[in-house]
Write a structure and sequence with these properties.
The complex is a heterodimer of chains A (288) and B (276). Chain A has 288 residues and is mostly helical. Chain A has 14 helices and two strands. A two-stranded antiparallel ribbon of chain A has the order 1-2. Chain A is globular, with a radius of gyration of 24 Å. Chain A starts with a helix and ends with a helix. Classes of the chains: A mainly alpha (288), B mainly alpha (276). Chain A: Its main location: membrane.
């Protein structure tokens, strides 16, 4: 039973974590808001005074804004769909009886250990290079013209690289969930003559609901901020400029902090819209 | 009753699963193999797979070109330091949420997780300024603090889900025997929660090791970890696939080996404690 004493102790023990996160959220947020209303060019005069909403208007009316939102949503959505669908398929496969399940699982998780800068560089050069890349060799072996992956199919290429990194995560969570499924229920369905697509659709998939929402929630958090994969491969060229990358360019490449900060506020708003949406779905699922 | 499976079915599963597993692992395998080739063999078409003259030359070149040991040490210090600090702060918080829950516990957890949605790039410049003011730019300590903060929500969440599995009666019994709060956490709770804490630590080591936004933007020569080491190979320079592969292998090997040795804890950790 929690006493008054342990309640206040509990609050005290939570204090460091809560205070730190509150500070980590509020201080940069306040500073970003402050800069977003200023004309601030660190290399060209510094603080040039208040400009009201000018930065906000300029950021949205810039021709790069809407495409960047679209690119962000396409990349995040594409990776989510690929990793969830393939993740379910792979998890079902790995759940089957087989020899060497442990080693196969190690092979499948391995991409998760690879740092984004490494995976982006390896994919860009050793696989997607139009002259020397392995995919070019493969295309030539079939007599086809090698594809200029990162310029002609830039967004799908980036989706592929990122999906490769996140597939292990989705697979593992879904596999863990499948393994917790009561096998008697499945056997009963099997004996009653339910065909396997039906067993999948009515028993396995509903059971995976919670795991799928965890996959989507956690991946979205990480995918909204992907940076290294774009920084290293295309540098934002060929239509791969996400909102994150556009802001990065405004702040660090053009050294326009005011404009970049306004962009930052938009990014925070976008993230929050997605967050509310996700929390509602996931929160519901997590309570069950 | 176990589902009966024919050997043929099992062989089929095995073949398909190994084929897919190897396909997923192939980019890593190819990188490791290429690191032992000469530059000419690295771009040979048709590609050479195993039968080439194995050489360690590339590793020598990479070592000469950059101070690998320093990058490695920075990665270890930053990933290790931020994880340790994070766990120290998160254990008490997760403890109180799991054992003295209030109506708001779920909200606080969700709020903590939502701070992770704050786009890093949106607050890059403010953090940059704060770092300059406090003299933290390009220091290991600065990065330890930042990485601790971005991973703290996940550490708290994972520990919370693990702690909740520990029956409260055991803690009460310890309390009856006169254990104070501190003894209760150190001598009763921590040993029972050790597997969960180990999984949390492992996962966060990986996340911190691979973090590539703050580590690239807040460091220069002094505190740069392996993410920056590898980024210096991003501009092509003649034939460099073999050297790139050697550098890549050196950057991912420590975490790959750690991950493989601790697969069980890691699999548990990778599910973020959210799925059983």
């Amino acid at each position: 039973m929690a006493t008054q004493h342990s309640r206040s102790a509990a609050r005290l023990m939570m204090a460091p974590a809560v205070t730190l996160l509150l500070g980590w959220m509020l201080v940069p947020l306040a500073m970003t808001l402050y800069f977003s209303f200023k004309k601030y060019l660190p290399l060209r005069g510094g603080d040039l005074g208040w400009v009201g909403f000018e930065n906000y208007v300029r950021f949205v009316t810039s021709s790069a804004f809407w495409p960047s939102i679209q690119t962000t949503l396409v990349i995040v959505g594409g990776v989510l769909v690929i990793t969830t669908v393939l993740g379910v398929a792979l998890a079902l496969l790995l759940d089957q009886p087989m020899w060497g399940q442990g080693p196969v699982r190690i092979l499948v998780i391995a991409p998760f250990f690879v740092m984004p800068t490494v995976s982006a560089l390896v994919w860009k050069n050793m696989f997607m290079d139009p002259n020397y890349g392995l995919l070019a060799d493969l295309w030539r072996a079939f007599g086809a013209e090698p594809v200029q992956w990162l310029s002609q199919a830039s967004v799908p290429s980036i989706i592929m690289i990122v999906a490769w990194q996140w597939l292990p995560f989705a697979t593992l969570i879904l596999l863990t969930a499948i393994q917790s499924l009561d096998s008697e229920q499945l056997e009963a369905a099997e004996m009653d003559g339910a065909p396997s697509p039906k067993r999948f659709w009515y028993i396995i998939l509903p059971h995976l609901g919670r795991a799928i929402s965890v996959v989507i929630l956690i991946q979205t958090i990480f995918l909204l901020g992907i940076f290294a994969e774009i920084f290293v491969t295309t540098g934002g060229a060929f239509g791969t400029k996400t909102l994150t990358y556009l802001i990065y360019q405004r702040v660090l490449e053009s050294q326009n902090v005011g404009l970049g900060s306004a962009g930052g506020v938009y990014a925070i708003i976008l993230a929050n819209i997605l967050a509310i949406f996700l929390m509602r779905i996931v929160g519901k699922n997590l309570d069950n | 009753m176990a589902r009966s499976v024919t050997t043929r079915r099992k062989a089929f599963n095995t073949a398909v699963a190994w084929a897919i597993g190897l396909l997923i692992f192939f980019p890593i395998l190819w990188t490791i193999l290429t690191s032992f080739k000469t530059e000419a063999q690295a771009i040979a078409d048709p590609p050479v797979f195993l039968f080439f003259d194995w050489t360690l030359e590339n590793y020598g070149v990479v070592m000469e070109r950059s101070n690998y040991a320093k990058f490695l040490w920075n990665s270890i210090a930053i990933a290790g330091g931020s994880t340790l600090l994070g766990v120290l702060i998160a254990v008490p918080a997760a403890w109180s949420m799991a054992f003295v829950p209030s109506k708001r516990t779920k909200d606080i957890l969700m709020w903590m997780l939502s701070t992770k949605m704050l786009p890093a790039v949106g607050v890059l410049y403010p953090i940059y300024l704060v770092f300059i003011k406090l003299g933290l730019l390009d220091t290991k300590f600065g990065l330890i603090v930042v990485l601790m903060l971005i991973n703290l929500p996940i550490i708290v969440w994972m520990l919370y889900t693990y702690f909740r599995e520990i029956p409260g009666e055991i803690l009460e019994a310890a309390r009856m025997d006169g254990a104070g709060l501190k003894e209760e956490i150190i001598h009763v709770l921590t040993p029972m929660a050790l597997p969960g804490i180990a999984s949390t630590v492992l996962l966060n080591l990986i996340l911190a090791w691979n973090e590539a936004f703050w580590t690239l933007n807040l460091t220069a020569a002094q505190a740069a970890p392996l993410t920056a080491f590898i980024a210096s190979y991003s501009s092509p320079e003649g034939l460099f696939f073999a050297k790139l592969s050697a550098a890549s292998t050196m950057a991912i090997a420590p975490i790959l080996i750690l991950g493989w040795f601790s697969q069980k804890q890691l699999v548990r950790g990778l599910t973020f404690g959210a799925v059983k």
